[in-house]
Amino acid sequence: MGETPIRVLHLGKFFPPHPGGIERFVADLAAAQVAQGMAVRVLAHAEPGSWSSRHFRAGDVEVDLAACHGQFVYAPVSPAFPRLLARAIREFKPDVLHIHVPNTSAFWALLSPAARRLPWVVHWHADIPLDSRRRALRLAYRLYRPWEQALLRRARAVIATSQPYADSSQALRPWRDKVRVIPLGITDIPSPACGGWLGWGENPGLRILAVGRLSYFKGFDVLLRALARVPDANLVLVGDGECADALRALARELGVEARVRFAGRIDMDDAGRTDLAALYARADVFCLPSTERAESFGIVLLEAMRAGLPTIASDIPGSGAGFVVRDGETGLLVAPSDADALATAIQRLTADAGLRTRMGAAGAQRFAENFTLAAIAPQVTQLYREVLRDTTSPAL
């Protein structure tokens, strides 16, 4: 006889089509777990500004989205979340609570007797970045930290997404004995492409693709400054965010406006297709120029490697990006915030098509061997089973 199927309740922050690597990972992991024979439910937030909650099925995964009135310093404001958490536990009867953080709503589990009776796996996607330029975020962490540490104390196991990130996390330091490193993963088959988007148009030269929220720590300003030093390169920048207007102004100031396409946010259509897949297929190089450790992993790097693209990424101390990209093998690592170093890397790949081909092939192989959900999901399942077998030492 096989082992009893596990019932898993995931607590996430948002859910696709809300953009974000963590959101995509939670959805893909849940689908992969259902394919393994598990029963899976996800509780997350509706889009900020949504005043009603809803329940639906994403494939074979049950999903609850709690009404979200907005965000305060990135924290969803959702009075409905604790009520939906209690209902999900009562109706779904999970064996394991899989909590994805950072997410302030996850702290409601600490106040729920029903949740506290369950074993918890905390998926540590990122620390709160204390080196952030946002003073409000640093100040808010004083209130956040006691709850964060209580969550970790209560967890049976903690998943970190890379060894460098686990080693450098001050928040995880007291709980090293609970930490298991399991990288993020994505499906090995991308969404089908719409195929009608021109992307770089007819501009000659190297086609660079960058994808991410247009936030200060993503380093897209550094990428624009590097692009100004490489006249034979063109950029498509996918994403939206608070820095969009400033980046457009910088492109005009640097004189690269004609070589930059601001694509905005790209979502799937009703048939599950996306123009983003076509962009990955047509690009020559992918670039992730983030400047701070808030870039904890870089799941877009996996999307690029899956597409066979060489990658250029910032070698941020303590970040998983340097773990994903093997310097000189699958791509090039450069010092963060260094436009000259980034320009040199772009020039190197511009001048050597053979190197681009070799790095792209090596990246695709590394992805296939290490970062598919077929490789990642069984590791998570094994951790669940270890947690469920551990009944002799209850958590505090």
Word description of this protein:
The chain is globular, with a radius of gyration of 21 Å. The longest helix is centred in the middle third of the chain and has 20 residues, at 135-154. Helix 9 links the parallel strand 14 (285-288) and strand 15 (311-314). Helix content is 36%, strand content 19%. The chain has an eight-stranded mixed β-sheet, sandwiched between helices. Strands 13-12-11-14-15-16 form a six-stranded parallel β-sheet, sandwiched between helices. It is α/β, with parallel strands linked by helices and 396 residues long. Mean pLDDT is 91; it is low at 392-396. The protein has two domains: 7-187 and 372-389, 3-Layer(aba) Sandwich (Rossmann fold), CATH 3.40.50.2000; 206-370, Rossmann fold (3-Layer(aba) Sandwich), CATH 3.40.50.2000.
Q: Any idea what the CATH superfamily of the largest domain is called? A: Glycogen Phosphorylase B
Please give the CATH architecture of the largest domain: 3-Layer(aba) Sandwich
**Strand-and-helix sequence, N→C?**
EHEEEEEHEHEHEHEEHEHEHEHEHEHHH
Spans of at least 5 consecutive residues with low confidence: 392-396
Kindly name the structural category.
alpha/beta
**In what order do the strands lie side by side in the largest sheet?**
3-4-2-1-7-8-9-10
CATH class of the largest domain: Alpha Beta
Sheet bearing the most strands, described? 8 strands, mixed
> How many whole angstroms does the radius of gyration measure?
21 Å
Number of domains: 2
| Mean pLDDT value | 91
Write down the CATH topology of the largest domain.
Rossmann fold
Distance between the termini: 34 Å
**What fraction strand?**
15-25%
* Number of DSSP-assigned strands: 16
Shape: globular
Give the number of helices: 13
Helix content: 25-40%
